[in-house]
Amino acid sequence: MIRICVVCEGHTEVEFVKSCLAPFLFRQDNKVSVFPVLLQSRAGNQRGGRVTVERLVNLISKQYHHADRITTLVDFYGFQDRKGRTSQEVAQAVHEGIGKKIKNYDMQRVLPYLQMHEFEGLLFTDPDAFEWVTDGWSAVTREQLHAIAAEFTNPEDINDSPETAPSKRILEIFPAGTYSKVEHGPLIAETIGMDAIREKCPLFNEWVSMLENWGNA
Q1: Nearest Cα residue to 34 out of 24, 44, 45
Q2: Distances in Å between the alpha carbon of 7 and those of 27, 82, 176, 210?
Q3: Which of 1, 63, 132, 171 is the most exposed place for a label (fewest CB within 10 A)?
């Protein structure tokens, strides 16, 4: 049994790891045990949000000796200090920062996964699963969600600008107060299923495959 810590950007990602990712990986032959940890503020409070290299480095360094492997589930698009860097360059900066804090740091134990866009993008794998937003669900909302999904090659591409991010699109479609990211997001993902999400979201699938490989190592 290998224990993997997933550093999460927010409460929605934490619930997704608990309800979807952890059960999925544990059911596989490799029996991977996954547990989420919410990104902390400078004061050490578990608040989530505002992702920076410094915050990731600090939390990963604290968790380094409490898990066999560590990965992240954060939004690269909203990364506060990417400053024109690619996701690979940001990941390298995280590794370098941890290396300064941990003696004999093993890079193979840490996988900084930076989702190119928001978690909500994954939910467009199957727009019909949004029916769990019972107070706001209708034929009109269903049609609008399917129209968005049809515009893009895969759900991970749904993010043209801060104004058209997946979460903003969802909030514009559903009546005010009917959609809750933390409540409905993980539930919708669980309804869709990990297999379906992996099939339509190649970057997410690649990440999950790496976690599976850790279990098979």
Answers
A1: 24
A2: 21, 18, 30, 16
A3: 1
Q: Of 197, 190, 210, give the one whose Cα is nearest residue 155.
A: 197
Three-state secondary-structure class, residue 208: helix
Weakest-pLDDT range from 27-31, 69-73, 168-172, 204-208: 27-31
SS3 at position 70: strand
Cβ neighbours around 60 below 10 Å, total: 25
Q: How far is CA 19 from CA 23, 26, 73, 183, in A?
A: 7, 12, 15, 12
SS3 118: coil
**pTM value?**
0.91
pLDDT reading at 116 higher than 80:
no
Q: Rounded to whole angstroms, how far apart are CA atoms 122 and 156?
A: 6
Domain range summary for the chain, segments of one domain joined by +: 2-116+195-216, 120-192
CB 72 within 8 A of CB 56: yes
The crossing angle, in degrees rounded to 10, of helices 53-63 and 87-101 is 50
The amino acid at residue 56 is L
Give how far Cα 34 sits from Cα of 3, 128, 173, Å.
Answer: 6, 28, 34
CB neighbourhood size of 135 (10 A)? 9
What letter represents residue 21's amino acid?
A: L
